[in-house]
Design a protein that fits this description.
The complex is a heterodimer of chains A (about 325) and B (about 260). Chain A is of the alpha/beta class and about 325 residues long. Chain A has 11 helices and 14 strands. Chain B has 12 helices and no strands. Chain B starts with a helix and ends with a helix. Classes of the chains: A alpha/beta (about 325), B mainly alpha (about 260). Adenosine-5'-triphosphate binds next to helix 1 of chain A. Magnesium ion (MG) binds next to helix 1 of chain A.
Chain lengths: ~325, ~260
């Protein structure tokens, strides 16, 4: 549904997006993850034909964003970082205006705007001035605006920012229910959100793709984690890891104290095979107490930090106070 | 065409939903009323004097009242237009709503044409409100309505040209005050070029005189529908629209 090839955006002084390539299948939800200033918004702006790329191509539903912008725009719904609302309009009036510029036939305008309002929980403020709404409600109106014409592709820049917890859950459910018919690209800083909604991930840092793939693939790691305590005596790390490293198929073992007299032992294996029974047997044979035994998986925040922090630190040194202005 | 109408309607509604429309209408009506009644006062005094001395009246209603009135309105434009045009794009940019417009299936020219028509419509309603004063002329005198209509057409054409230039300036900044100040000085400059006509005639002064916005209104005020002057206002409008289109393109590149 979305094909991005070598997409690049250069501003006068910096490169915001640097040869980004990825693709999204129809009906998928893809999460854009990255630290502030990574280039998420800029990428989305190019996908929505708000700005042309300096280099590279992007096609949406088979239409090129540079060559056939009108066709692309008909098929996308876009929620920018700041909801694009007119404070002096009423919610209903605004949604009807959007419906018209999105090309919805005049006789459906009223009905569609009410439907979108109902879906995004703004029915109760339908006749209120947008300027008088709270931030969260304004964000909901922005979301209603994006889905009003039932677009094939939804591009949502931080869709749940400013929401209360109940609203976050409702919005996640709404977004998940939209997937299937719609292809959704969303950016966020909230990692639980990615786990809750997205099937695949694009982690972007300093304008480059640090990693992309399905959430499962990215967080999978071969191996296991044990937590043990030793009934008598203060052991050494090497004494704890030794019995595991001699096991066939184990590539690395690392042991460290994890507080309360417990030791955490990470065992990396070369293959995806589950070695937990063998590991448990070793622990029991040694006479240690086994407190925990899990197959290893990388927590999303660990993945995120490992991919972004060292480089992000360098970047913030070079450009101390770079604001993103629109 | 539906898109243009949608945008124009939205612009017009926005004017009337903000205090600026009412302030301008009130201020314009007040100024217009002041010009009007003082001109009528002069006219009445001149005609009674003429009657007393037995001489013929040197000027008629159209010449004395309407011509001066329309002339003053043209000057008033200088102050009103920047206030109308400043928000056209600057506001959309500072609020981020430009992202909605530029990512909707609209062509750039539809957006800017709609906005321009909305602004011209707003100015037309200012003229309409102020012209209530003129009812008295028709009630108590016998002015010729044709030159009056042509005079009004001239005012509208002049405003349309100025609004197009103002819209362009509004599209290069996201600060409304900056847009208003820049538009004001541009219009002022275009106005004072008129003084060149009093200087030695050479190529430069001729061209500058020709460019002057207000000068082209003189024929309309006299009640003459001049094709050359009409064409002048239309081409300035077109230039403003064209520049706005180019500027929108660069908004896209610079983000
Ligand atoms: N109009 C602009 N002119 C110049 N540089 C810009 C402009 N807009 C963005 N940038 C720069 O491009 C880079 C990427 O910005 P972008 O807004 O895409 O980041 P982001 O990933 O959306 O960040 P955040 O998480 O804070 O929203 C930043 O370094 C920013 O300073
Ligand atoms: Mg952003």
């Amino acid at each position: 549904m979305i094909q991005v090839e070598g997409l690049t955006k250069r501003y006068a002084r910096n490169v915001a997006v640097d040869h980004v390539s990825f693709s999204v299948e129809k009906g998928q939800i893809v999460g854009f993850l990255g630290p502030n200033g990574a280039g998420k918004t800029t990428t989305m702006r190019m996908l929505t034909c708000f700005m042309p790329p300096t280099e590279g191509t992007a096609t949406i539903a088979g239409f090129d964003v540079v060559k056939q912008p009108l066709e692309v725009k008909k098929r996308i719904g876009y929620l920018p970082e700041t909801p694009p609302v007119y404070p002096e309009m009423e919610v209903g009036e605004y949604l009807q205006f959007v419906a018209r510029i999105k090309g919805i036939p005049e006789k459906e305008v009223l009905q569609r705007s009410q439907e979108a309002a109902a879906r995004c929980f703004v029915k109760d403020v339908y006749n209120k001035l947008i300027g008088k709404l709270s931030k969260g409600y304004r964000q909901r109106v922005g979301l209603a605006q994006a889905i009003i014409h039932n677009p094939d592709v939804l591009i949502l820049d931080e869709p749940t920012s400013g929401f209360d917890p109940k609203q976050i859950i409702e919005t996640r459910d709404l977004i998940k229910s939209l997937a299937g018919d719609h292809t959704i690209v969303l950016s966020t800083h909230i990692l639980q959100e990615v786990e809750a909604m997205c099937e695949s991930l694009v982690i972007i840092n300093k304008g480059k793709i640090a990693k992309s793939g399905t959430v499962e693939d990215l967080t999978r790691r071969n191996g296991a984690v044990l937590e043990v305590s030793i009934p008598n005596g203060a052991p050494e790390a090497s004494a704890l890891s030794a019995p595991f490293s001699s096991l066939a198929g184990v590539s690395a073992v690392h042991a460290e104290p994890s507080g309360h007299g417990l030791w955490r032992i990470d065992v990396d294996t070369t293959a995806a095979a589950d070695m937990r029974p063998q590991l448990a047997q070793i622990v029991l044979a040694k006479g240690w107490n086994l407190h925990r035994l899990d197959s290893a998986s990388l927590a999303l925040h660990e993945l995120f930090l490992s991919l972004t922090s060292p480089v992000a630190a360098v970047q913030s040194e070079q450009t101390p106070s770079e604001e993103n202005e629109q | 065409m539906r898109n243009v109408i949608t945008i124009a309607r939205k612009e017009l509604n926005t004017y009337f939903q903000s205090p600026i429309a009412y302030i301008l209408i009130a201020a314009f009506a007040a100024m217009f009323g002041y010009f009007f009644w003082s001109l009528v006062y002069f006219f009445v005094r001149a005609s009674t004097q003429a009657q007393m001395t037995g001489r013929a009246m040197p000027m008629n209603l159209n010449e004395l009242v309407i011509r001066n009135l329309l002339g003053n309105c043209g000057v008033l434009c200088l102050f009103m237009i920047p206030m109308l045009s400043m928000r056209l794009f600057a506001e959309e940019k500072s609020r981020g709503t430009i992202e909605l417009l530029l990512t909707s299936p609209l062509k750039d020219w539809e957006i800017l044409l709609g906005k321009w028509i909305g602004a011209v419509g707003m100015y037309a309603s200012l003229l309409l409100f102020s012209s209530i004063n003129l009812i008295f002329l028709f009630a108590y005198g016998k002015p010729d309505w044709k030159p009056l209509a042509i005079g009004y057409l001239g005012l509208l054409l002049q405003a349309a040209a100025m609004l197009a230039l103002g819209m362009f300036i509004s599209s290069v900044t996201q600060n409304q005050i900056v847009a208003a100040v820049m538009t004001f000085f541009l219009l002022l400059l275009l106005w004072v070029f008129e003084w060149m006509s009093n200087m030695d005639q050479n190529r430069v002064t001729e061209i500058l005189t020709y460019i002057s916005l207000l000068r082209h209104n003189e024929s309309f005020i006299k009640g003459v529908l001049d094709m050359k002057d009409t064409l002048y206002y239309l081409s300035v409008s077109f230039l403003g629209l064209f520049l706005t289109a180019r500027s929108l393109e660069s908004v896209r590149y610079r983000g």
